Amino acid sequence: MKTFNVGIIGATGMVGQRFSLLLENHPWFNVTAVAASKRSAGKTYAEAVEGRWAMTAPIPANIKDMVMMDAADVEAVAAKVDFVFCAVDMKKDEIKALEEAYAKAECPVVSNNSANRGTPDVPMIVPEINPDHAEIIHAQRKRLGTKRGFIAVKSNCSLQSYVPAIHPLKEKYKVNKVLACTYQAISGAGKTFERWPEMVDNLIPYIGGEEEKSEQEPLKLWGHIEGDKIVNADDIAITSQCLRVPVSDGHTAAVFIDFGVEEKPSVEEIIDIWNNYKGRAQELELPSAPKQFLHYFTEPDRPQIKSERMLEGGMAVSVGRLRPDTQYDMKFVCMSHNTLRGAAGGAVLMAELLCAEGYMD
Q1: Is 166 found in the same domain as 72?
Q2: Separation between Cα atoms, residue 211 and residue 222, nearest integer Å
Q3: 56 close to 74: Cβ distance less than 8 angstroms
C-alpha cells in the first residue's frame, strides 16, 4: 500500500488529539497538516494544545512543532494533503459547509462529526458491518461535481458498543426489536474529570440528541443503496436510553433483543457466531483492525471498563452476560472504547478501508 499525506481538521480537541496519537506511527498515513480555528493558526501544535492536552501519552514528536493552519483556509490545507480527518467543534450547518468545501476542493473528508450522517449519499461506515456502502461515493461525487472529493462519516460512538454484536445475529436470524441502554464515558463529551468535577460520584440521565442518534443511525448502517441514496432499514425497531456515567473512557450498553422468528438461536449458537465473526476489515488485514472483532467473556462480572477497554488497541468490542430474558428473547452487555473504536480509531479504520478499496486514488 502506498502512503498518503493526511491532515487533521479540529486537531486541538479531544478526538483530534486522539487522531494525532493514532497517526504518529501509522504505516500508511503521514500527517502533513494540522488545523483548527483561526485563534490557533500560526501557533505550533504544542502551543495550541497547551493546558488542553487530555491524553495520557505525550504530544507526538512528529507534529509537536508543526505550525497550525486555519481550518477555514480550505485551499491551503487541501494543497498539503491527500485527504483529511475532520473532528471540529462547530454548529452543524457550519460543519456541513466546511466538509463540503473540502470535498469540492478535491480533498476527501473522513469525518468524526455528525453533521453529514443524515445526508442520503454520504456513507456512514463501520468496516466490519457495511463496507459496501462506500459505493455511494460515486453518486455523491456526481452531485458535488468532483473527481476525487467526497465525504464519508463515522457513526455515533455509543453505537459501536452494541450494534456490532447485533449485526451478525441480524445477518443470520431476523432481529425484530432492540432495547439498548448506554452508559457513556465523560470523554464522549470531550471532558476529563479535571475539567468536569461535577461528574465525580455522579450520573446524568440525559445526553442531548444521543437517544435519537442511537435509534436512527443503526438503520442507516443496515440500509441499502437505491439509486443515488442510502435507504434506511425498516425491518428492525430500536429504542434507547443514554446516561452519562463517571467513567473516563469506554461506553457500556445493556442490550435486549427480540428475534422475529419462531426458531430462536440458543446461547451457545449466539456465542459461537460472535466468536467466529469476521468483517471486511479482518479480511483485508487493515492496520487498525482488531484480529478478533467481538470478544465474548464467560465470567459473570465481565466485560469491565478497566480490564477490557484497551482490548486489541481499543479497537475490539467486548460482550458478556448473554442469557434469556423474560420480556425479550435474549439480553447481554457490550462495551467498547469510545474515543478509539467509537471515534478516532473507527475513522482511521474507515480511511484504511477506503484506501484499500481504491476510493482515495
Answers
A1: no
A2: 18
A3: no
CATH number of the domain that residue 67 is part of? 3.40.50.720
Note if 251 is an active site residue: yes
Has residue 14 been placed in a domain? yes
The active-site residue out of 86, 107, 157, 242 is: 157
In this structure, the answer to whether residues 33 and 114 fall within a common structural domain is yes
Q: Is 157 a catalytic residue?
A: yes
pTM: 0.97
Q: Which domain holds residue 310?
A: 158-337
- One of 133, 167, 251, 295 is an active-site residue; which one? 251
* Residues 117, 220 contacting (CB under 8 angstroms): yes
Q: Are 134 and 215 in the same domain?
A: no
Tell me the HSE value of 27 on the side-chain side, using a 13 A CA sphere: 9
Contact in structure between 199 and 191 (CB atoms under 8 Å): yes
Q: Residue 361: inside a domain, yes or no? A: no
Phi (first) and psi of residue 355, to 5 degrees: -70, -45
The set of cell numbers assigned to 8 is 487533521
Q: What is the pLDDT of residue 260?
A: 81
- At residue 261, the pLDDT reads 78
Quick one: pLDDT at residue 255?
A: 98
Note whether 54 and 10 are within 8 A (CB).
no
Grouped pLDDT means (10 residues each) for the chain, 361 residues: 95 95 97 95 96 94 97 98 96 96 98 96 98 98 98 94 96 94 95 95 96 96 98 97 97 96 92 97 98 98 97 98 97 96 97 98 89
Asked if residue 288 and residue 230 are part of one domain, the reply reads yes
